Amino acid sequence: MLTCEWVQALTKFDCRSVRTLDGSSGLEVGTPFSLPDGSAINLYLVPASNQILISDNGDTVAHLSGMGLDIWQQRRLKSLRDAASNHKLCLTDEGDFRALATNENASFVFAQVITGLLAVSQWAAHQMNVEVKEHDIAAEAEPYILARSPNARFIKNPKVMGASRALHTFDFQHGNELIDVISANPLSTGSVMRKVGDVTNGPYIEGLSPLIIVDDRIDSFKARNEMSILASIARTQPFSILTRARH
Fold this sequence. Notes:
This protein is α+β, with helices and mostly antiparallel strands. The protein contains 8 helices and 13 strands.
């Protein structure tokens, strides 16, 4: 049975129970992400035989139509479906984006659906010639990180004191890893290097290991350069590795 307690293995986003049109129980999960008009991106999880259906319940298409974007033009529809399918997300003829998951891969598919809807939001912004708003890449990474080991201890914004006795905040603690998720730019690299250096040189890290995830999806060359600098002081990983299914 789907419950908000169960979904905590997938995400720490807000969750509430809902009823579907046929009276069966489901879950609505609110995300911190939005469409170009500021409308929230929400996901719905409902039982589907022996699988779990994860969808946007048609909200995305409804909001885009309300903004004057007709997605049903043949060329535009193909472009949109291609953008969604890159993340294993299907746009049905009824207008909802959806993916099917099993209990075993639900956490990864949930993360993948979020990335897919963010790609749809960016696609829509380009179609309407409006500015693509930056989103919180740490929040996008969160369900992927949880999917690696859903039962591991997970803390958002953990604080660790450094050798200077300054208190430093990381994005997550997952198991024994202190994780920061950053964009590929020198400013982010410099900031995280100072933080990691202070923490690892102090006595307060208590067996935790820093891991820096660098977003390489826009400019992989720049990301590799920043990762090579960070590698002198911490373990690094490109964001794209997170988005690959584990077998």
